[in-house]
Amino acid sequence: MDHALKGGKPENVRTDCLILPVGPERELGATAKRLDALTDGRIERALARDDLGRGLGRTLLLTDPAELRAPRLLLVQVGKPPLDAAGFRKLVRNAAAAVITTGAQDATLCLDDVDVKDHDPSWCAAEAVIQAAEEAYRFHDYLSEPGETLKVNLRRFNLHQSAAARAGIDRAIKEAGAIADGVAMARTLGNLPGNVCHPSYLAAEARKLGQGAKQLSVRVLEEKQMKSLGMGAFLSVTAGTEQPAKLIVMEYRGGAQKAKPLVLVGKGITFDTGGISLKAGAGMDEMKFDMCGAASVFGTMKAVLGMELPLNVVALVAAAENMPSGSASRPGDIVRTMSGQTVEILNTDAEGRLVLCDALTYVERYKPEAVVDIATLTGACVVALGHHASGLFSNDDALADALLAAGERSGDRAWRLPLWEDYQQQLRSNFADMANVGGREAGSVTAACFLSRFARNFQWAHIDVAGSAWLTGAKKGATGRPVRLLVEWLKSRTG
Question: Are residues 152 and 195 in the same domain?
């Protein structure tokens, strides 16, 4: 979707649909009053009849408004003041949804009358771009004929702002467009079926991302190289499938040459049957989403490239399938990790931590400033936090606070859970240095405790997105989270 900032008089804006926020109790801002006068009072009359309603995000379409260049005028209810960030996001999403139903290819949102608490016009413009793009996203690559609800003609979502408030908005729109593209990439990778999006496909996507990008270099480690590095835990997961595992390394150089990189590590289990510890059949189709941590890393790197952030960022994707076969790992097997520590595999369905632990050890060679891994790691995190917040664990309070703050600013929230030493005892094994599971109690915590044993040499955080990375039911599909959180955190590190 394209975006642009438009100025001049709102009645002269050439667009298929002009979107006009209006306040409650028939309150009209300066722009609304001007357009009401030009349309012979149509806006006031509609509000007097209560056609728009009083609820935040309610919309009313007026067609062929006199004296306007736009053939459609969409009123959208601002609701009771003050309008906060969440309310503004809802307003834009509802407005974009209403525009999409009209078949319009071009829409323009008037921002002059919008006042969002604690946020300036640049934030409003950027947020509008991201929310409209997310509302317009559709995945119908494998439908012979997409239905009416999947058809989106909207190609441009523009912003109109008076000259007095335009400073900085152009850059904000450009950055927002890059973030929206990153979120869309993460959603599409997550939505692809497992027979298409396997480890080799992800490797090809990484190389494609690096094509023509001077700041991004891409390397792919094959299983032979992983074996020589001693990645026994990682390779134990891929032992039962014909799809070769890949460790994908993307290095973005936008900062000073000697500046330590920030590292993102994504769990990329492109399909998870559970292995020999086979999952129940019902709902197993959703295990194509078990690579959404990796998808978010891809999306974040796409956004970083588009924004040209002045940072050094390294992204690792640990990609594998977890399948049952005669060569698959068995419960009770013991493997040696790249760190030299041994793991007793009590449950082959706890495979994400096995690929991540070797990836975290590999990260040490970069002498990182900080490391964040992202994974659809535990069903226990869904039980704990539902689908609203991602779970956050960290061995560094400052890093945790920065990530939580980034989540609040972006609306892609996380909640910190404990990483106390008390929980480590649940990972005891009679036969190895540790077990790969710690029992039913505090499953998301013990999973993070397992990973923490491989992250002792750097500042590290783990984000469990099992509840936030995709939706089920009628709206089933990848959400693209936590791309926005990660990008916001990276932006904060630019100073």
Answer: no
**Whether residue 204 sits in one domain with residue 150:** no
Beta partners for 320? 269
For residue range 443-483, list pLDDT tens digits in order. Answer: 999 999 999 999 999 999 999 999 999 999 999 999 999 99
pLDDT exceeds cutoff 70 at 164: no
Q: Which of 429, 400, 399 lies closest to 414 in space, CA to CA?
A: 400
Residue 379 · residue 466 · CB < 8 Å? yes
Length of the chain: 495
Q: Structural domain of residue 115, as residue ranges?
A: 5-160
Counting beta carbons within 10 angstroms of the beta carbon of residue 207, is it exposed (0 to 12), middle (13 to 18) or buried (19 or more)? middle
Q: What is the CATH number of the domain that holds 11?
A: 3.40.220.10
* Same domain as 487, residue 356: yes
Q: Which amino acid is at 460?
A: W
Instruction: Quote the tokens at residue 126.
Output: 């950027």
**Cβ pair 404, 482 in contact under 8 A:** no
Count: domains in the chain:
2
Give the mean pLDDT of 160-172: 83
pLDDT for the residue numbered 454: 98
The structure's pTM equals 0.97
Find how far residue 339's CA is from the centre of its chain: 30
What per-residue confidence (pLDDT) applies to 25? Answer: 66
- Give catalytic residue positions: 279, 353
CA torsion sign for 421, 426, 431, 435 is: negative
* Cβ-contact 333, 236 below 8 angstroms: yes
